[in-house]
């Protein structure tokens, strides 16, 4: 038993759990040099420490256990260069994806910080110039209830994640103006995710730069009618012709709060002065 380490000693030296070493043994990745036939205790030789180091480093680099097991069957400088160069490409792709996620999270945080100012002053309605935007869309099925809207939104997220599309971590809906004018404020026709311009998408919708009348609704979605009434009154009182359906952008929603009273939705119409003005 000289020059052998117990599983506890090896676990301590390598900062790895005994359960992990047992698992590596079971899958044939790293087996002990000796197993006591009387009690089943595992022991490892000093020569095996380098092999375990290699496994742990390969795992840290990002290789799967299956890939590591295959790699370690017979590796040379040439085979190592090939597989490590390949992994560099994988890591670069992961870095780019993380950078994209970072920018999306920053965008969401800035929106939430700006919108939080409206928590106490939600009655504000403003006219502002918006920039061109692109939306990944999904039609909402009849009868256009919250459940159908939720399903359409989830289909958008599923498509975005499946195809690694550059969406922002935000959702929204389009509500036809005709429905709003008849008090059907929550009957959205389309769910969407804001997205960077992406070629080849059939369900990509472009909304142009232009002048919009905007307000923020604070509270649960079913109470959004009061904010639409406020927005419609604003347009009527200032002689603004509404040119579009409504676009609703979720600023603070179920992703960022459990309290529906803290929900914040940005509502906007494209507008222009009426011809008489």
UniProtKB/TrEMBL annotation:
GO terms for molecular function: DNA binding; DNA-binding transcription factor activity. The keyword DNA-binding applies. PROSITE patterns: HTH_MERR_2. It holds the Pfam family MerR_1. Keywords: DNA-binding, Repressor, Transcription, Transcription regulation. The keyword Repressor applies. Residues 4-74 form the HTH merR-type domain. InterPro entries: DNA-bd_dom_put_sf (IPR009061), GyrI-like (IPR029442), MerR-type_HTH_dom (IPR000551), MerR_fam (IPR047057), Reg_factor_effector_dom_sf (IPR011256). Transmembrane segments: none annotated. SMART domains: HTH_MERR. PANTHER family: MERR-FAMILY TRANSCRIPTIONAL REGULATOR, REDOX-CYCLING DRUG-SENSING TRANSCRIPTIONAL ACTIVATOR SOXR. This is MerR family transcriptional regulator. It comes from Candidatus Fusicatenibacter intestinigallinarum.
